[in-house]
Amino acid sequence: MSSQLATATRSPSLIDRFGRVVRSLRISVTDRCNLRCLYCMPDGTIPWFPKQRILTFEEIGRVARILSSLGVRELRLTGGEPLMRRDLPVLARMLMRIEGIEDLAVTTNGLLLDEMAGPLVEAGVRRFNVHLDSLEPDGFHLMSRRSGLDRVRSGLEELERLKATPVKINVVLLRGVNEDQIPRFVELAVRHPYQVRFIELMPLGGGEPFEIDRLVPGHEVKRRIEAIHPLLPVGRERPSAPATVFRVAGGAGDIGFINPVTEPFCAECDRIRLTADGRIRTCLFSRGETDIAALLRGGSPDERIADALATAVAGKEAGGCLDLHQFYRERLSRKMWQIGG
Ligand code: SAM
Q1: What is the pLDDT of residue 299?
Q2: I need a labelling partner for 226 at 20 to 30 A (CA). Which of 60, 67, 241, 287 fits?
Q3: Burial bucket for residue 259 (CB in 10 Å: 0-12, 13-18, 19+)
Q4: Model pTM score
Q5: Sign for the pseudo-dihedral over CA of 167, 172, 177, 179
Protein backbone atom coordinates (compact mmCIF):
# COMPACT_ATOMS: atom_id res chain seq x y z
CA MET A 1 0.00 0.00 0.00
CA SER A 2 1.44 3.39 -0.93
CA SER A 3 1.91 5.79 1.97
CA GLN A 4 -0.54 8.20 0.30
CA LEU A 5 -3.25 5.54 0.24
CA ALA A 6 -2.44 4.54 3.81
CA THR A 7 -2.97 8.16 4.90
CA ALA A 8 -6.22 8.40 2.96
CA THR A 9 -7.48 5.18 4.58
CA ARG A 10 -6.69 6.47 8.03
CA SER A 11 -8.09 9.96 7.56
CA PRO A 12 -11.01 10.56 9.92
CA SER A 13 -14.56 10.84 8.66
CA LEU A 14 -17.77 12.23 10.06
CA ILE A 15 -19.86 9.05 9.93
CA ASP A 16 -21.53 7.78 13.07
CA ARG A 17 -22.25 4.21 14.21
CA PHE A 18 -25.65 4.33 12.53
CA GLY A 19 -24.28 5.39 9.15
CA ARG A 20 -25.43 9.00 9.41
CA VAL A 21 -23.04 11.49 7.83
CA VAL A 22 -22.57 14.87 9.51
CA ARG A 23 -22.78 17.75 7.03
CA SER A 24 -24.06 20.56 9.19
CA LEU A 25 -22.54 22.49 12.09
CA ARG A 26 -24.43 24.86 14.40
CA ILE A 27 -22.09 27.37 15.91
CA SER A 28 -23.11 29.16 19.08
CA VAL A 29 -21.16 32.40 19.20
CA THR A 30 -22.36 33.57 22.61
CA ASP A 31 -24.50 32.46 25.54
CA ARG A 32 -25.74 36.05 26.07
CA CYS A 33 -29.26 37.00 25.00
CA ASN A 34 -31.34 40.18 25.00
CA LEU A 35 -34.63 38.32 25.62
CA ARG A 36 -35.65 36.15 28.56
CA CYS A 37 -38.16 33.80 26.95
CA LEU A 38 -40.28 32.01 29.55
CA TYR A 39 -39.33 28.56 28.36
CA CYS A 40 -35.66 29.28 27.69
CA MET A 41 -33.96 31.50 30.27
CA PRO A 42 -34.49 32.59 33.85
CA ASP A 43 -35.14 36.27 34.42
CA GLY A 44 -32.82 36.58 37.40
CA THR A 45 -29.07 36.31 37.70
CA ILE A 46 -27.60 34.12 34.98
CA PRO A 47 -24.23 32.37 35.32
CA TRP A 48 -22.81 33.55 31.98
CA PHE A 49 -19.68 31.93 30.61
CA PRO A 50 -16.66 34.05 31.60
CA LYS A 51 -15.63 36.13 28.56
CA GLN A 52 -12.24 34.44 28.23
CA ARG A 53 -13.95 31.05 27.86
CA ILE A 54 -15.87 32.14 24.76
CA LEU A 55 -14.18 31.10 21.53
CA THR A 56 -12.58 33.81 19.42
CA PHE A 57 -13.55 34.12 15.76
CA GLU A 58 -10.16 32.64 14.82
CA GLU A 59 -10.83 29.60 17.01
CA ILE A 60 -14.33 29.16 15.55
CA GLY A 61 -12.91 29.55 12.06
CA ARG A 62 -10.29 26.88 12.73
CA VAL A 63 -12.87 24.34 13.92
CA ALA A 64 -15.09 25.12 10.93
CA ARG A 65 -12.15 24.74 8.54
CA ILE A 66 -11.19 21.36 10.00
CA LEU A 67 -14.81 20.19 9.90
CA SER A 68 -15.15 21.39 6.33
CA SER A 69 -12.11 19.31 5.38
CA LEU A 70 -13.98 16.33 6.87
CA GLY A 71 -17.20 16.97 4.91
CA VAL A 72 -19.24 19.63 6.69
CA ARG A 73 -20.92 21.87 4.10
CA GLU A 74 -23.47 23.95 6.02
CA LEU A 75 -22.96 26.31 8.92
CA ARG A 76 -25.52 28.09 11.09
CA LEU A 77 -24.70 30.85 13.58
CA THR A 78 -26.78 30.82 16.74
CA GLY A 79 -26.58 31.44 20.47
CA GLY A 80 -27.68 32.90 22.93
CA GLU A 81 -28.42 35.74 20.58
CA PRO A 82 -25.72 35.65 17.88
CA LEU A 83 -26.26 39.27 16.80
CA MET A 84 -25.10 40.37 20.25
CA ARG A 85 -21.58 39.74 18.92
CA ARG A 86 -21.55 43.04 17.10
CA ASP A 87 -18.77 42.11 14.71
CA LEU A 88 -20.59 38.95 13.61
CA PRO A 89 -20.29 39.92 9.91
CA VAL A 90 -16.51 39.59 10.29
CA LEU A 91 -16.97 35.97 11.36
CA ALA A 92 -19.55 35.37 8.61
CA ARG A 93 -17.13 36.60 5.96
CA MET A 94 -14.33 34.45 7.41
CA LEU A 95 -16.53 31.34 7.38
CA MET A 96 -17.81 31.92 3.85
CA ARG A 97 -14.21 31.94 2.62
CA ILE A 98 -13.57 28.42 3.90
CA GLU A 99 -13.19 25.98 1.04
CA GLY A 100 -16.09 23.53 0.94
CA ILE A 101 -18.59 25.66 2.86
CA GLU A 102 -21.68 26.00 0.69
CA ASP A 103 -24.17 27.62 3.01
CA LEU A 104 -24.19 29.96 6.00
CA ALA A 105 -27.39 30.75 7.91
CA VAL A 106 -28.23 32.73 11.05
CA THR A 107 -30.81 31.98 13.75
CA THR A 108 -31.78 35.16 15.59
CA ASN A 109 -34.52 36.73 17.68
CA GLY A 110 -34.43 39.62 15.20
CA LEU A 111 -34.03 42.46 17.72
CA LEU A 112 -30.79 43.70 16.14
CA LEU A 113 -31.58 42.64 12.59
CA ASP A 114 -32.54 46.01 11.15
CA GLU A 115 -28.99 47.29 11.59
CA MET A 116 -27.11 44.02 11.12
CA ALA A 117 -28.97 42.30 8.27
CA GLY A 118 -27.23 44.43 5.63
CA PRO A 119 -23.65 43.70 6.80
CA LEU A 120 -24.51 40.02 7.27
CA VAL A 121 -25.97 39.69 3.77
CA GLU A 122 -22.94 41.50 2.40
CA ALA A 123 -20.74 38.98 4.23
CA GLY A 124 -22.54 36.10 2.49
CA VAL A 125 -25.46 35.16 4.74
CA ARG A 126 -28.69 34.63 2.78
CA ARG A 127 -30.80 32.50 5.06
CA PHE A 128 -32.26 33.86 8.26
CA ASN A 129 -34.39 32.09 10.86
CA VAL A 130 -36.16 34.66 12.98
CA HIS A 131 -37.67 33.56 16.25
CA LEU A 132 -40.99 35.23 17.08
CA ASP A 133 -43.55 33.85 19.52
CA SER A 134 -46.24 36.52 19.33
CA LEU A 135 -47.40 39.15 16.85
CA GLU A 136 -48.92 41.35 19.56
CA PRO A 137 -46.77 43.65 21.74
CA ASP A 138 -48.30 42.38 25.01
CA GLY A 139 -47.96 38.76 23.98
CA PHE A 140 -44.39 39.37 22.86
CA HIS A 141 -43.59 40.82 26.28
CA LEU A 142 -45.37 38.00 28.07
CA MET A 143 -43.34 35.36 26.20
CA SER A 144 -39.97 37.08 26.17
CA ARG A 145 -40.18 39.31 29.27
CA ARG A 146 -38.82 42.15 27.14
CA SER A 147 -40.22 44.63 24.62
CA GLY A 148 -39.11 44.67 21.01
CA LEU A 149 -41.81 43.50 18.61
CA ASP A 150 -41.42 46.72 16.57
CA ARG A 151 -37.69 46.08 16.23
CA VAL A 152 -38.27 42.51 15.06
CA ARG A 153 -40.79 43.80 12.52
CA SER A 154 -38.33 46.35 11.16
CA GLY A 155 -35.67 43.62 11.01
CA LEU A 156 -38.04 41.51 8.90
CA GLU A 157 -38.75 44.52 6.65
CA GLU A 158 -35.02 44.98 6.22
CA LEU A 159 -34.67 41.33 5.14
CA GLU A 160 -37.45 41.85 2.58
CA ARG A 161 -35.73 45.00 1.33
CA LEU A 162 -32.45 43.08 0.98
CA LYS A 163 -34.31 40.24 -0.79
CA ALA A 164 -32.75 37.74 1.61
CA THR A 165 -34.55 34.42 1.13
CA PRO A 166 -35.71 32.16 2.54
CA VAL A 167 -36.85 33.80 5.77
CA LYS A 168 -38.13 31.30 8.30
CA ILE A 169 -40.10 32.40 11.36
CA ASN A 170 -39.66 30.08 14.35
CA VAL A 171 -42.60 29.99 16.76
CA VAL A 172 -42.70 28.07 20.05
CA LEU A 173 -46.22 27.73 21.44
CA LEU A 174 -46.97 27.40 25.14
CA ARG A 175 -50.41 26.09 25.98
CA GLY A 176 -52.53 28.76 27.61
CA VAL A 177 -49.97 31.49 26.90
CA ASN A 178 -49.59 32.18 23.16
CA GLU A 179 -51.58 29.49 21.36
CA ASP A 180 -54.14 32.20 20.50
CA GLN A 181 -51.50 33.48 18.06
CA ILE A 182 -51.92 30.55 15.65
CA PRO A 183 -54.38 32.39 13.32
CA ARG A 184 -52.17 35.49 13.30
CA PHE A 185 -49.13 33.48 12.24
CA VAL A 186 -51.18 31.81 9.49
CA GLU A 187 -52.17 35.30 8.32
CA LEU A 188 -48.47 36.25 8.35
CA ALA A 189 -47.69 33.31 6.05
CA VAL A 190 -50.60 34.27 3.79
CA ARG A 191 -49.28 37.80 3.34
CA HIS A 192 -45.51 37.27 3.32
CA PRO A 193 -43.23 34.75 1.60
CA TYR A 194 -42.10 33.37 4.95
CA GLN A 195 -41.94 29.82 6.15
CA VAL A 196 -43.62 30.01 9.56
CA ARG A 197 -42.51 27.00 11.59
CA PHE A 198 -44.14 25.81 14.79
CA ILE A 199 -41.49 24.17 16.98
CA GLU A 200 -42.58 21.88 19.79
CA LEU A 201 -41.47 22.90 23.24
CA MET A 202 -38.55 20.75 24.38
CA PRO A 203 -37.46 20.14 27.98
CA LEU A 204 -34.27 22.15 27.59
CA GLY A 205 -35.23 25.42 29.18
CA GLY A 206 -33.85 27.18 32.14
CA GLY A 207 -36.72 29.58 32.54
CA GLU A 208 -39.85 28.44 34.29
CA PRO A 209 -39.77 24.75 35.28
CA PHE A 210 -40.66 22.61 32.29
CA GLU A 211 -44.26 21.42 32.31
CA ILE A 212 -45.21 18.87 29.68
CA ASP A 213 -48.78 20.22 29.82
CA ARG A 214 -47.49 23.40 28.17
CA LEU A 215 -46.46 21.50 25.05
CA VAL A 216 -48.82 22.02 22.10
CA PRO A 217 -48.17 19.01 19.80
CA GLY A 218 -47.49 19.83 16.17
CA HIS A 219 -50.32 17.59 14.92
CA GLU A 220 -52.77 19.60 17.05
CA VAL A 221 -51.46 22.90 15.66
CA LYS A 222 -51.85 21.52 12.14
CA ARG A 223 -55.42 20.43 12.83
CA ARG A 224 -56.27 23.85 14.23
CA ILE A 225 -54.76 25.58 11.19
CA GLU A 226 -56.60 23.32 8.74
CA ALA A 227 -59.85 24.28 10.43
CA ILE A 228 -59.31 27.88 9.33
CA HIS A 229 -57.11 27.61 6.23
CA PRO A 230 -56.28 24.82 3.75
CA LEU A 231 -52.71 23.49 3.74
CA LEU A 232 -51.13 21.79 0.74
CA PRO A 233 -48.39 19.23 1.48
CA VAL A 234 -44.88 20.02 0.29
CA GLY A 235 -42.92 17.53 2.43
CA ARG A 236 -39.41 17.97 3.72
CA GLU A 237 -36.97 20.24 1.90
CA ARG A 238 -34.41 17.42 2.22
CA PRO A 239 -34.41 14.25 4.34
CA SER A 240 -32.38 15.81 7.16
CA ALA A 241 -34.52 18.98 7.34
CA PRO A 242 -36.41 19.07 10.64
CA ALA A 243 -39.60 20.71 9.31
CA THR A 244 -42.49 19.10 7.47
CA VAL A 245 -43.71 21.86 5.20
CA PHE A 246 -47.13 22.81 3.78
CA ARG A 247 -48.08 25.59 1.36
CA VAL A 248 -50.68 27.98 2.63
CA ALA A 249 -53.34 27.73 -0.09
CA GLY A 250 -53.58 31.01 -1.97
CA GLY A 251 -50.92 32.62 0.19
CA ALA A 252 -47.35 33.83 -0.27
CA GLY A 253 -45.68 31.59 2.29
CA ASP A 254 -45.52 28.18 3.90
CA ILE A 255 -46.21 26.62 7.27
CA GLY A 256 -43.77 24.12 8.77
CA PHE A 257 -43.98 21.82 11.74
CA ILE A 258 -40.93 20.79 13.75
CA ASN A 259 -42.04 18.06 16.11
CA PRO A 260 -38.97 16.82 17.99
CA VAL A 261 -41.04 15.57 20.93
CA THR A 262 -43.99 13.82 19.29
CA GLU A 263 -42.28 12.84 16.01
CA PRO A 264 -38.50 12.73 16.55
CA PHE A 265 -36.47 13.01 13.36
CA CYS A 266 -33.18 11.75 14.78
CA ALA A 267 -32.72 9.00 12.18
CA GLU A 268 -31.99 11.60 9.51
CA CYS A 269 -30.02 14.01 11.70
CA ASP A 270 -26.85 15.35 10.05
CA ARG A 271 -26.03 18.04 12.65
CA ILE A 272 -23.54 18.63 15.40
CA ARG A 273 -23.14 21.70 17.58
CA LEU A 274 -20.21 23.79 18.73
CA THR A 275 -20.97 25.65 21.96
CA ALA A 276 -19.77 29.19 22.59
CA ASP A 277 -17.20 27.79 25.03
CA GLY A 278 -15.84 25.30 22.53
CA ARG A 279 -17.57 22.01 23.26
CA ILE A 280 -18.88 19.72 20.54
CA ARG A 281 -22.32 18.31 21.23
CA THR A 282 -23.67 15.68 18.87
CA CYS A 283 -27.28 16.11 19.98
CA LEU A 284 -29.29 18.79 21.79
CA PHE A 285 -30.00 16.12 24.37
CA SER A 286 -26.45 14.82 24.70
CA ARG A 287 -25.32 14.04 28.19
CA GLY A 288 -21.68 14.29 27.19
CA GLU A 289 -19.59 16.65 25.12
CA THR A 290 -16.09 16.89 23.64
CA ASP A 291 -13.85 19.69 24.85
CA ILE A 292 -12.40 21.12 21.65
CA ALA A 293 -11.43 24.40 23.35
CA ALA A 294 -8.86 22.52 25.44
CA LEU A 295 -7.28 21.17 22.24
CA LEU A 296 -7.43 24.53 20.45
CA ARG A 297 -5.83 26.31 23.37
CA GLY A 298 -3.44 23.49 24.27
CA GLY A 299 -1.49 23.69 21.02
CA SER A 300 -2.94 20.58 19.36
CA PRO A 301 -2.32 20.23 15.63
CA ASP A 302 -5.24 20.09 13.18
CA GLU A 303 -4.90 16.32 12.81
CA ARG A 304 -5.41 15.78 16.54
CA ILE A 305 -8.47 18.05 16.50
CA ALA A 306 -9.83 16.28 13.42
CA ASP A 307 -9.49 12.94 15.22
CA ALA A 308 -11.32 14.28 18.27
CA LEU A 309 -14.14 15.62 16.07
CA ALA A 310 -14.46 12.30 14.22
CA THR A 311 -14.47 10.37 17.50
CA ALA A 312 -17.21 12.66 18.84
CA VAL A 313 -19.29 12.07 15.71
CA ALA A 314 -18.74 8.31 15.87
CA GLY A 315 -20.38 8.34 19.30
CA LYS A 316 -23.41 10.37 18.20
CA GLU A 317 -26.55 9.19 20.00
CA ALA A 318 -29.12 7.14 18.08
CA GLY A 319 -31.63 9.77 19.12
CA GLY A 320 -31.45 11.73 22.30
CA CYS A 321 -35.00 12.84 21.78
CA LEU A 322 -36.19 9.26 21.81
CA ASP A 323 -35.72 8.89 25.53
CA LEU A 324 -37.45 12.12 26.45
CA HIS A 325 -39.31 10.50 29.30
CA GLN A 326 -36.04 9.77 31.00
CA PHE A 327 -35.11 13.31 30.17
CA TYR A 328 -38.08 14.88 31.92
CA ARG A 329 -36.87 13.32 35.15
CA GLU A 330 -33.36 14.72 34.82
CA ARG A 331 -32.23 18.31 34.98
CA LEU A 332 -29.80 19.08 32.21
CA SER A 333 -26.43 20.51 33.09
CA ARG A 334 -26.62 22.76 30.01
CA LYS A 335 -29.63 24.72 28.89
CA MET A 336 -30.62 25.66 25.36
CA TRP A 337 -28.94 29.07 25.43
CA GLN A 338 -25.69 27.45 26.61
CA ILE A 339 -25.81 24.85 23.83
CA GLY A 340 -27.00 26.91 20.88
CA GLY A 341 -30.52 26.47 19.56
N1 SAM B 1 -31.50 33.88 20.04
C2 SAM B 1 -31.72 33.13 18.85
C3 SAM B 1 -33.22 32.93 18.64
O4 SAM B 1 -34.00 33.43 19.42
O5 SAM B 1 -33.58 32.28 17.65
C6 SAM B 1 -30.99 31.82 18.77
C7 SAM B 1 -30.99 30.93 19.97
S8 SAM B 1 -32.57 30.33 20.46
C9 SAM B 1 -32.09 29.22 21.74
C10 SAM B 1 -33.00 29.32 19.08
C11 SAM B 1 -34.41 28.81 19.06
O12 SAM B 1 -34.58 27.89 20.11
C13 SAM B 1 -35.50 29.86 19.21
O14 SAM B 1 -36.43 29.71 18.15
C15 SAM B 1 -36.16 29.48 20.51
O16 SAM B 1 -37.55 29.76 20.50
C17 SAM B 1 -35.89 28.00 20.56
N18 SAM B 1 -35.98 27.41 21.89
C19 SAM B 1 -35.39 27.82 23.03
N20 SAM B 1 -35.71 27.00 24.04
C21 SAM B 1 -36.54 26.05 23.53
C22 SAM B 1 -37.21 24.93 24.08
N23 SAM B 1 -37.11 24.62 25.35
N24 SAM B 1 -37.96 24.19 23.25
C25 SAM B 1 -38.06 24.49 21.93
N26 SAM B 1 -37.45 25.53 21.36
C27 SAM B 1 -36.70 26.31 22.16
Answers
A1: 97
A2: 241
A3: buried
A4: 0.93
A5: positive
